[in-house]
From TrEMBL:
The keyword Glycoprotein is annotated on this UniProt entry: yes
Name of the protein in its database record: Complement system-related protein ITGAL-2
Highest taxon above the source species: Eukaryota
PROSITE patterns with a match to the protein in the record: FG_GAP, VWFA
Phylogenetic placement of the source organism: Eukaryota, Metazoa, Chordata, Craniata, Vertebrata
Species assigned in the record: Cyprinus carpio (Common carp)
Length: 1092
């Protein structure tokens, strides 16, 4: 039994009480088989809350829907019986009281009876309001036959022993003393018909009993009171109170009742003149003795108030003189009268005064069990009621461990497992987290077996309960517990359903379900008779505050109760019952209401109900087949771009009904069929449209009828296809499209396998025994004599692969090479149809590359030459003198292992770029001599040695210097490397020249003139010159087998010309002598002429 209302402990207003009523609540879904397109609706009045509760019934052969409207008639409440087609609803007649409220809030149905309750049946007892409940019982004709009021609190009066303790001190006049006695007499007369017994005591310095309870009982009290004389002494108040306790209230001989409520009325006009030696006021409090104090005249009210019981200000009265006692009669009379029924006075918890029985109700064999949330000071209880009318009998069922304000009985369900009845009751406020208690019956007594505690404060765990017999064998398998106020922030959720597996002794939680972000999910829960024909009961869960309300339908599961893998069907209010609020506040789904042998669901909202019919569920099995049995290879030829019909595909369906519907319902399914060819490939080899090779997918709607049906499709392929070995994998997926018009309401079973695959193989031809063995033969050679290591340098290998055996499948060539080079290209040469595909590297390896050859098949009798181009990537690597390479060939069916691995080596040379040159601007390359200046003169040559490459290497420098000519001699003086320790005369020692580095060498020599005698005896009138040229050569020396000089405009050899000039000037003596002789001859000639 599900409850959707909070409980109130007061009875102030209509809406405040109902809920305490209304405890309401949304989500997501995929369609199962509940028909939301053709709902049957009946609208009541939202103000009456028609639809608050709904029940499917069948009395005799008449199927009906019982509906509660607890707010109708100024919240009196009514119940209605609606026809199965919801064409009309008739109000149930009940003999009722106008004081009944919220009738129809809870009900229970059996095969022949209906019990409907009102948990709000107030009645007055001497000015005090009690709130109980009343339940009405109806027969199979829905005629009210009786009612009962479980946990009903009768108006009772408890025995009260009251003592008047009046002051007799000397401060009181005689007339005041008489007024005091008349006041006591008037009180006793007005309360003479009550259960109160009186006694009176006068106190002054001494204390005296005027009359005791026995005197009041035998009628002599008034006579003794009027004869009592005034003591006229001091005011010993504490002593007097102690006297009253000892001699009257706690003395059976005085006529006192030990179980009666005790009270004292103290009347005094003076302050206490004695000390509290016996701690008498604490004793009064411990014994729960009520004390009313009347102060007269000039008294200390603060001190006097301390004599009263709590609340002290309310129990203390003041008058100016004794004449004011008359005005206190009515006030004091009311307080004394209320002692009979006051909780505070009685000092005990409320038992049944606010029981609100009937908050939940279930049938148990010949009895009815009702929940009473307010019993025992709101701890709550259950009452098992047998019989009917005034002769009914009730047995209280309680959980002693439940605390106050727990609301046990808020929800109640009854089940059975292995012959043992299981009674569950929810207490949603127990320990603030909620509690569910399991009772089992042993020798006609219900006892607590176990409890389940909620996990979150304020979640209202246990507000809704239901039992699920998932396999319909009569044993309850799962307990469903709703906690509609459960809150979860991430991901956001409001409301939670807990699913527990059951045994006779314990619970075990198997599943938590939350669907709604708002809406109080699981405010209502109902088990449903099998909806989809899988033989398992299903579950409906309401979230009435999610928008206008939502109901979720879950399929049953043997292990978890609810199938956790399937998205539930989500039924929002707007789709079936628009315009109303709190859709899903009530649920019922255990019957077929329209005789089609399918379960129907009734859902209530605020102001209406809707009947949703189940639809037939069709189970579909599919299979794919093809013809011919393999794809012939005879149609394939490369190159070729036209298409041909490779094979035909057939899709067949077998449709059977999983449910067992009857009637004239059409059971056809409109199915969207999706076919995909070669689904594992990015580029499909097969297609549906011969004019469009990209049409690898086909979508088509087909109509499936009950029985067996097939559909055919042609699959096309291009004549030139790379892979003619791997089979074509075809996938078919189907799903139901829109529901067909007319009477076709069938739906596809969610358990049907909606995806099928088939693989279409290619023709397989081998030489013998259907066992294909390839015979791979591999060889390769280097096209370069050496490997010259240079940045981005290339070298090539020539690879030969032959297959004289059967077709080779998944053939590959693996190239193993040292680090520092990488494969750049690997292609077949000449005119060949063989294709190769090489990965970057194998698993990030830097020394291996695998090339796939003509995947998937390298045909028998094929011989292919490949040219592999490698690129140097690490020229500064530590290279050995030889580079070794290994190439292997592999396939899935290769039978020749001896000719598939070849190793070759090639010498390695490093490319270097060296240069040697003369630094002309810093060198002396010209000398001049004469006979007078024969030297020696210094000769200075500076050479620059450069490494322009990226590789350092050991080098040496040698110079060739001609020492002399017939007339000039060069004497080396020094030969050194600048800024370095290497030096030598004509060849320096070997040194390491780093990459991108420069070294300088300095050659110093002396040049001198020699053998000049032949020039000394020569006399000439002209200048004599002679030039001598010395060719000085410089050369870089390195290991040419390891290093290879590249041409970059520079050279590792340099030749320098040193020019020496010898100059002999004209002979001055010859010129002088010749001049002198000539002058002399001229003079002689002149003289001769003169002499003539």
């Amino acid at each position: 039994m599900n409850r959707k209302m909070f409980v109130t402990q007061t009875s102030s207003s209509r809406m405040e009480t109902l809920g305490l009523i209304l405890f309401m609540w949304a989500s997501l879904s995929e369609a199962f088989n509940i028909d939301t397109e053709h709902p049957l609706r009946f609208n009541g009045t939202p103000e009456d809350f028609f639809g608050y509760s709904v029940y499917q019934t069948e009395f005799g052969n008449r199927k009906q829907i019982i509906v509660g409207a607890p707010l109708e008639g100024n919240s009196t409440g009514e119940m209605y019986s609606c026809t199965a087609d919801l064409q009309s609803c008739q109000q149930l007649q009940r003999p009722g009281s106008e004081s009944v409220r919220f009738f129809g809030m809870s009900s229970a149905v059996s095969s022949a009876a209906l019990t409907s309750c009102s948990p709000y049946f107030p009645h007055e007892c001497d000015g005090n309001s009690y709130l109980n409940g009343v339940c009405y019982q109806f027969n199979s004709s829905l005629q009210a036959i009786s009612n009962f009021t479980a946990a009903y609190q009768e108006c009772t009066k408890r025995e009260v022993n009251l003592v008047f303790l009046f002051d007799g001190s000397s401060s009181m006049k005689t007339v005041d003393f008489e007024m005091n006695k008349n006041f006591i007499k008037d009180i006793m007369k007005k309360l003479s018909n009550s259960s109160i017994k009186f006694a009176a005591v006068q106190f002054s310095t001494v204390v005296r009993t005027v009359f005791d309870f026995n005197d009041y009982q035998n009628g002599s009290a008034e006579e003794k009171l009027m004869k009592e004389r005034h003591m006229k002494s001091l005011t010993s108040t504490h002593k007097a109170i102690y006297y009253v306790l000892k001699n009257l209230l706690n003395s059976v001989s005085s006529g006192a009742d030990p179980n009666a409520q005790k009270a004292v009325v103290i009347i005094t006009d003076g302050d206490p003149s004695d000390n509290e030696d016996h701690n008498v006021l604490n004793t009064c409090d411990e014994q729960n003795i009520l004390r009313y104090v009347i102060g007269v005249g000039k008294v200390d009210l603060i001190e006097l108030t301390q004599l009263a019981s709590e609340p002290k200000p309310d129990n203390t009265f003041y008058i100016q003189d004794y004449s004011g006692l008359k005005g206190l009669v009515d006030n004091l009379q009311k307080k004394i009268y209320n002692i009979e029924v006051s909780k505070d006075a009685q000092g005990r918890d409320r038992q049944k005064e606010l029981s609100q029985s009937g908050f939940s109700v279930v049938y148990h064999e010949e009895s009815v069990i009702v929940g009473s949330v307010g019993s025992n000071d709101w701890r709550g209880a259950l009452y098992e009621v047998t019989g009917s009318g005034p002769e009914f009998r009730q047995t209280e069922i309680i959980d002693p461990a439940v605390n106050k304000d727990s609301y046990m009985g808020y929800s109640t369900v009854l089940g059975m497992r292995r012959g043992v009845y299981l009674l569950f009751s929810g207490a949603p406020r127990a320990e603030h987290t909620g509690l569910v208690t399991l009772f089992t019956k042993n020798q006609n007594t219900w006892t607590v077996t176990s409890n389940i505690n909620g996990e979150q404060i304020g979640s209202y765990f246990g507000a809704s309960l239901n039992l699920l017999d998932v396999d319909s064998d009569g044993d309850s398998d799962f307990l469903l517990v709703g906690a509609p106020l459960f809150y979860q922030s991430q991901p956001r959720a409001e409301g939670r359903l807990y699913v527990y597996t059951l045994s006779e002794q314990y619970f075990q939680r198997t599943l938590n379900v939350s669907e709604s972000t708002t809406g109080r999910f699981a405010a209502s829960v109902a088990s449903l008779k099998d909806l989809n024909g899988d033989g398992l009961s299903d579950v409906a869960v309401g979230a009435p505050l999610e928008n206008e309300g939502v109901v979720y339908i879950y399929l049953g599961d043997r292990t978890h109760g609810i199938n956790p893998e399937l998205t539930p069907q989500r039924i929002p209010a707007r789709s079936v019952l628009p315009g109303l609020q709190q859709f899903g506040v009530s649920l019922s789904g255990q019957m077929d209401m329209n005789d089609d042998n399918l379960t129907d669901i009734v859902i209530g909202a605020q102001g209406g109900i809707v009947l949703l019919k189940a639809r037939p569920v069709m189970s579909v099995s599919a299979q794919l087949s093809f013809s011919p049995k393999e794809i012939s290879l005879n149609y394939f030829e490369c190159p070729g771009s036209n298409a041909f019909n490779a094979f035909n595909l057939t899709s067949c369906f077998t449709v059977t009904e999983r449910t067992s519907s009857t009637g004239s319902l059409e059971k056809k399914l409109n199915v969207s069929l999706n076919l995909n060819v070669d689904v594992v490939r990015g580029m499909s080899r097969g297609f549906f449209d011969p004019m469009d090779s990209s049409s690898s997918s086909l979508q088509q709607s087909v109509l499936l009828d009950s029985g067996f049906s097939c559909f055919n499709f042609s699959i096309f392929m291009l004549r030139c296809v790379a892979d003619t070995v791997s089979p074509l994998k075809i996938r078919m997926h189907f799903s139901q499209t829109e529901i067909l018009s007319g009477n076709s309401v069938a739906v596809l079973d969610v358990h049907s396998r909606t995806e099928e695959y088939v693989e279409v193989p290619f023709q397989w031809s081998c030489n013998s025994n259907n066992s294909c063995v390839a015979d791979l033969k591999l060889n390769f050679s280097f096209t370069n004599d050496t490997l010259v290591v240079e940045n981005q340098a290339h070298f090539t290998v020539l690879v030969l692969l032959a297959n004289p055996g059967d077709d080779s499948y998944n053939t590959s060539i693996v190239l193993h090479y040292p680090e520092g080079i990488s494969l750049s290209k690997f292609n077949a040469i000449k005119l060949s149809q063989t294709r190769s595909s090489c990965g970057d590297r194998d698993s990030s390896a830097t020394n291996r590359t695998t090339c796939r050859i003509n995947l998937p098949v390298y045909r028998s009798g094929t011989t292919t030459q490949f040219l592999g181009t490698f690129r140097v990537t690490k020229w500064d690597n530590e290279w050995s003198d030889w580079m070794e390479m290994m190439i292997t060939a592999n396939s899935d069916n290769n039978g020749n292992m001896s000719d598939t691995e070849v190793r070759r080596s090639v010498p390695v040379q490093f490319a270097v770029d060296l240069a040697i040159s003369l630094v002309a601007e810093d060198s002396v390359t010209y000398l001049n001599f004469s006979l007078e200046d024969r030297g020696p003169k210094p000769l200075n040559l500076i050479y620059k040695v450069e490494n322009l490459g990226v590789k350092g290497l050991p080098v040496s420098v040698s110079l060739t210097l001609p020492c002399q000519t017939p007339h000039v001699i060069l004497t080396p003086h020094n030969f050194s490397m600048q800024e370095d320790s290497h030096c030598g005369k004509f060849e320096c020692h070997q040194f390491h020249l780093q990459k991108y580095s420069v070294a300088h060498f300095n050659l110093m020599a002396h040049a001198a003139l020699q053998n000049v005698k032949e020039f000394k005896s020569k006399y000439s009138f002209y200048e004599f010159r002679r030039d001598y040229v010395f060719n000085i050569s410089s050369e870089l020396n390195f290991n040419t087998s390891r290093y290879n000089q590249i041409a970059s405009g520079c050279d590792d050899f340099s030749q320098t010309e040193v020019k020496v000039e010898f100059v002999v000037p004209p002979s001055l003596m010859l010129i002088v002598c010749t001049g002198a002789v000539g002058g002399l001859l001229l003079l002689i000639i002149i003289l001769f002429l003169l002499l003539k």
